[in-house]
Amino acid sequence: MSDTTATGDEATLAPEALTEAHAAAELARLAGLLARADAAYHGDDAPEMSDAEYDAFKQRNAAIEARFPALKRADSPSDKVGTTPAEAFGKITHAVRMLSLANAFDAGDVADFDQSIRSYLNLGPDAPLAYTAEPKIDGLSLSLRYEGGALVHAATRGDGATGENVTANARTIAEIPTRLDAAPEVLEVRGEVYMAHDDFAALNARQADMGGKTFANPRNAAAGSLRQLDAGITKSRPLRFFAYAWGELSAPLAETQKGALDRLAGFGFSTNPLTRICETVEDMLAHYREIEAQRATLGYDIDGVVYKINDLALQHRLGYRSATPRWAIAHKFPAELAWTRLEGIDIQVGRTGALSPVARLQPVTVGGVVVSNATLHNEDYIAGRGASGEAIRGGKDIRAGDWVQVYRAGDVIPKVADVDLSQRPADAVPYSLPNTCPECGSPAIREEGDAVRRCTGGLICPAQAVEKLKHFVSRGAMDIEGLGAKQVEAFYHDDQLPVKEPADIFTLQRRDSQNLSKLANRDGWGATSANNLFQAIEEKRKIPMARLLFGLGIRHVGEVAAQDLARHYGGWAAMTAALDSARPAALAHRAADEAADAERRRAAEEGRRARVAEARRRTLETAETPVAASEAWDDLIGADGIGPVLALSLSDAFANAHERAAIDRLIAELIEITPPERRAGDSPVAGKTVVFSGSLEKMTRAEAKARAEALGAKVAGSVSAKTDLLVAGPGAGSKADKAAALGVETLDEDGWLALIGAA
Ligand code: IVH
Q: 661 and 712: one domain?
């Protein structure tokens, strides 16, 4: 017979040792405890427990429920929506964005990197050009701000623009000085927080002894330790820091990258001792091999080598692309590999309806991380064919039941590298993608020229609708605090508080509804978190145009294109009017593309190629597109960064009656769509449309374009009535004639440099 009374011992007994009565009492205690912790976490109160304690209590609750399923409570903590620690930290906006690095995977990529820099700077192949080469530390980046020599705050990278305030935690790291002598008044030091192998092993052993959470690898351990709500816990974790870069500075540190690192070392920071100066690509590759050879004995994880232009003046000239510097690159070590069984192939339906096959794998450890699925891209990839029909993996196809080799490189989704045909089960059959969407049953069609099969269900497909919503609330789009992927998915399936399309997020929040109290009573929510969410939604009724446009999730319209479009049109109404006006021309171009494709097929058969362009031209001519439509279309595809594929996709989205109605419902909920910021409002070229033509002598075309854009100008490829300025070098030819005919102001290169203050 088991006990029928709880004794108070239940809190200390292992789940296996609990009687039924003990278990019921313990589940009640855990439910109360975790609910209070949630409330403290979401509200402004001081948090009651660390992430690790919270997780341990949740696990204990789940273990007891697994033993006594009948005792599971209606308010069970297991059913609550998880909390995002990020919400618990304050945010810090970086004074200078924290960017990431472009990657090189082989010697050819490194040579291309050097070549692209030389061509950007107009340097010959033998002109001297020095790089630093140093290990790429596999940790997490941190920005430390010092004012008057005192550490004032520390922030994680976050989305690059804003990070989490982890100042109290950073102060506990011995390798981070809290005071600097003789440093510039403002100095932001950037580098990597990491955990050494020995310390990682010892920490995991300690955690296991305490029955706490162990970490999969040192990087996760470092991240989990830095992002503790209780700085006392961070202090007990052996974190280290390498300085390798900087953000805002009130005075330059040095003239070279290496000189700046030496200054940082002089302030007391650790800088990596394997940093070298390399004068040639061969030197860079030699140092890469040297670092790779030492990798296993360094005592901490690295995942590649970073090369940076040594001369800081050249770094400044090279500047940045949207998310990465032109002056640096990460040369990654080859991916780690492991063999395992492919148990099955699942299909995920994405926001644009793409059916993505995913390999379900028998879990296997690859480079310290357990991998249980891998991307299979598309049906050609599964069949052993690359993008242009060439054989990949020696032409071997992938089947359920196969013994496959998977690899992982950095944070990317694992992939299948190889198949062992000798281990293929006799009954394995070739895989074919379904012809209907597994989520909504609509036909799934693969159009000619597209590698991907797509569900044609549009918004009636729940998978597409949910993925669109997730994209809409994602970081680069609406970024609504408290409303992440998990929450929108829950709302999508919630009959009482349904969110089926973006506009519903705002109608959900409307003040005159009962929704606030309904939400506050939901599991995982309370009055404070519901209120916070509604407040966060209200704040997003004013939204930058580029974020809104990106958030719509239109195929081909990524963050950069959305910025380009916003800058090009300067406002939402101007853009939609232009798209509506351009529609007939967009249709004519689609018809012309189709005619050209048909002709291309015929010509390939008959060996006559000249007819393709002719078919395109004839179709366009017979389309009788209104002049205004052609102008609007030409203006759209003349915009910098916008090509015909993107333009057609955008036009289709706004011309589709269902999609347009959903967009308009969303717009009606918004208060203000803010036009793009001019990047440098005081420049005389800010907001102007500039065309470069002919050859430039003092800088390359790429540099000229990047500089103009940095000053807030739009750079277009062709002269039209909208052009404000033509910068014409020798040989400008027909563009110069057209500019003259249209009365467009024309400058030579020196005139341009004087205008932008660079002469
Ligand atoms: S330089 C403008 N140097 O790699 C970017 N980054 O993949 C300046 N990282 O976000 C970064 N070791 O977190 C730089 N020696 C090193 C690095 C390094 C690791 C990280 C950093 C960055 C990421 C990019």
A: no
